[in-house]
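Forwarding the complex inputs:
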Amino acid sequence: MKVKFFAHLRDLTQCGETEIAAQGTLTPDALWSALEQRFPGIIRHKTHTRLARNFTYADAGAIFHEGDEIALIPPVSGG
Amino acid sequence: MDKPEIKILVTQDPLKPHGAPPEGCGAVVEFSGIVRGEEEGRPISALEYQAYEPMAVRELERLIRELLAQIPCASVRVSHRIGVIPVGESAIILQVASPHRGAAFSFATAFMDRLKQDVPIWKIKPIP
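Prediction (whole assembly, two chains):
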C-alpha cells in the first residue's frame, strides 16, 4: 500500500510517499511499526498524527488493505 | 431554501474574488485570510503552504455539507491557495451568502474554526 507524508513528516522521511508491503491487511499499530522500521523515530509522532485511508480519516479500528492509499496527517494549519 | 450552491477550489494560483452571490441573498459574508509580514516575531516575505489535495477538497466539501445541515445558507464558495504565497496576498477567500446575516456570520466563523482542525493543509515554511 502507498503511504503519503506531509509537512514535517515529509522532512523526517525525506520523501513524499513510500510503499509498504502488506500480506493481506494491516492495523494502524502494525502500519506504525512497519514505518518505524523504515523511518526510525517516526513513531514519536504517532500521538499527534491522524491516519487517512483513501482520502478519509480512519479511526483506531481501521484495517488497511493492499491497494489502499494511506496518509499520515500531522496537525493541520490551513487558512 | 433551494439547494445550496457549493464551490471549492484548491490552487497554486493567486486567488480571485468569488463574484456576485446568488439572487435573493440579503447577506454576504466574505473572509480573506492574508499572509502577514511576520511569523513567530520574525519578518518574512512569503509563506509556503502544502496540501493533500484530493483529501483537502473532500474534507472541505464534507465540512461544508455538515455545517449547512446545522446552519442553512444559500451558497458557500471557498478557495484556498497553496505553494509559496507572498506577504499581503490571500491564502483563503471564503464567501457565504444567506437571506439574513445571522446564518452567514455563524457559518463563516464555524467553517474557519473547523477548517483549522480537519482540512489537510499546512503552513510548512516561512520564507525570509
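The longest strand of chain A covers residues 69-73.
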